[in-house]
Amino acid sequence: MRSRRFLLVALLAFLAAVAGVIVGRQLVEPEPHPGTELHAVLHEQMNLDADQERRLHELEEAFAVRRRALEGEMRAENAMLAEAIAVEHGNGPRVAAAVDASHRTMGQLQKETLVHIFAMRALLRPDQAAKFDAAVTKALTEDVR
Questions:
Q1: Which of 26, 85, 112, 128 could be cross-linked to 20 through a Cys-Cys bond (beta carbons 3.0 to 4.6 Å apart)?
Q2: CA-angle at 54, arms to 53 and 56, nearest 5°
Q3: Nearest to 52 by CA among 141, 124, 140
């Protein structure tokens, strides 16, 4: 009887860990960044002058550092979520706290991404900005349609 209970607990812990990994992969490894397409539009279709290219490169480097930091935080929070799921085997307080932490970080990344997009847009001439705006709209609505 005891070994049966142990096997059941071990199986539940394994399933909880697998669920945590699945949830974590969905949160950390989303579809390719919509920003990839925006950067391609900027570099390939906008005919940027040398000063715009230089300033854009500076913005991209600074944002890449910040994005990697936030993505690292999300990976750590997903590990905490997986651990909480393994311990609580349900939607307990540790699971809820880990989910809330992950959502705060994802929200911060989204806000900082928007700041970055607006900073890139500020480098553009009006004719370039119109093309950029269309690319942003497409990137944000592509999967919605």
A1: 85
A2: 65
A3: 124
